[in-house]
Amino acid sequence: MSNKDVNIAVHHLTRVEGHGNIIFNAKDGVIEDVQWQVSEAPRMFESFVRGRPYMQMSHVTSRICGICSIGHALASLKATEAAMDIPVTEQTVQLRKIALHAENMQSHILHVGYLVAPDLFGAGSVFPMIETHTDAVLNIIQLHRLANEMSDLLCGRTTHPITLMPGGFTQIPTESQLANLRTRLEHILPVCDDVLQLVLDNAHALPDFSRETEYIALVSNSEYALYDGIIGSTDTGQHPVEEYESIANEYIVPYSTAKFARHARESYMVGALARFNLNSEKLMPQAQKWADKFGLKAINYNPFMNNVAQLLEYHHSVTDSIRLIDAILDTGLHPVSAPSYTVKAGRGIGAVEVPRGILFHDYTYNEQGICTHANLIIPTNQNHCNINKDMQAFAPTLLNKPEKEIELNLEMLVRAYDPCISCSAHYLTVKFKS
Amino acid sequence: MKPRVAFFDFASCEGCQLQIANLEEAVIDVTKLVDIVSFREVMKEHSDEYDFAVVEGSIMRPMDEERLKTIRNHAKILVALGACACTGCVQRMLNQWPISESTDLVYGDADAQDIENNPYFDNFPTKALDEVVPVDAYIPGCPIDRDEFCRVLAALVQGKKPPVPDYPVCVECKKKENVCLFELGKVCMGPIARAGCGAICPSHGSECEACRGFVDHPEEEAFTEVLEKYGIDIEGIMQRKTMFTHRYIEEKKDGDEQ
Q: What superfamily in CATH does domain A45-424 come from?
């Protein structure tokens, strides 16, 4: 055991989305303080969505997050559709699933390729890697570009989807556009394999650290649950989505503008690793083969393997999108039609797996279809407590390392969660004062 | 020598900075034009020596205001990136209520000792950047248009005025030969909203919400005529279409009161 003093204060951690700080102090080899703080300015979405018409809700709430705006829009639409019994067709569900895959691919490759890879190659950012690892960077850009162009095709735009609306779409791609996308997805698979191989070759740079915790994600009998499912826990089994408030028990800590959450234990984790741990046998076969190569088996308790699970999911999303396009083209594409429903008062809950984990939107509408109450539970919010617990367990194992290395390891730990802090600080329960 | 550029963000979804990553291979061209010396979202390196500060986000707390002033002092040119920075975007809708009402709603179950006198939670009504410091150039939109970002950056590097359009979205929509959304029974802000987005929402069958703000001198009379033609009441529209226009509503209200 070292007897040294360590004082680390990482103000505004880099290469994550939003503002968070890492505090680590040790005196005479004894850790006095280790903390993950969230300093993002609260935007308080639940307050200002009050008064919004139902047709605008997905457009307003997509603005919670630039990276997972499609996921927010879909959770929002599912909540609205549940509240007003708005029907959606099988084709709409299939196209929405492809849109969600596009976002999952975009977000995961942005994280692993642009934000995490520099740690694996000892760079400060992806910019110097343009010179030192040109082929790898160009491969990553190809994966990123395809994901974004898929979003453009399905949603009209990469960030803040335009075409998604209650009951369906304002506009959908043509059959030939879908067939063209299918070809491009086929062609991206070897590139995806190359990037997976590169990360496998450098996986030794990911710290070997495990801490038992609970994992929560949507689960489904029919597929690797992303767009739909019920709540699954590695500790407590399955729960209906309506019980989400008893799963994500939130509380406030003074060093975070995002709330913390706990369920069966003092903390839990959501995201790609949680999904893998609950649904690994439902991954598409090629992605399963890659899981074997990485030696990744459920339940894996190493948070750094979240990076690997994200890449497996990229591969899965490519092959599952091909499957969905085939299913749509087999039955022939139906033109968009206006859904039939009546605006009415009610409450609806939408749950979707977005890149960083399980997301809940819960709305109440009045008879005019105006939102009167909203509760949004964001993935990163659910992870903050688990990040803190991991940090407390991880930090003592680092004490003998030089200070810079301790700092890097703690940064890598937070980064492995791919925290989306600007999202998480927007969450929060709105309770009307009586 | 290439200009040194630093990116910063305040309250926002960071989706506008994400559009820089979404330039894909063209990012490499950008790095040939300027030196990116600080960009917290994607790089660890940081420098306080920069020529251009590109700032995303709204200002919502005294601690944010101080940080923005420091950035302003370091920068020769300050660019407001996206609707949050230019107008306050959706979170400006918070300004319809006293701020304590929203914090009570959101953090109502917190221990008072955790929240009171805690700078993290010390929100004031949402402000755009130019309500705190002078801004030299604006890139509007929610999100920004990536190509427009490149055009503005290239203009600034050459010491030219950034080419942001001052004509309405209808101009771009008509050039695309779209069927007018009013003809389809929808309500669109196109006649007074600032163009530059390529009329991307109406082109996908979705109503324009004026995320880029209004043109400098909106033709309100002509807009009212269009609305009357389709039997739509302008007051009702201005109450409904407020996702991105709260700054104008506040300014109009202030003007009326004076």
A: Cytochrome-c3 Hydrogenase, chain B (1.10.645.10)
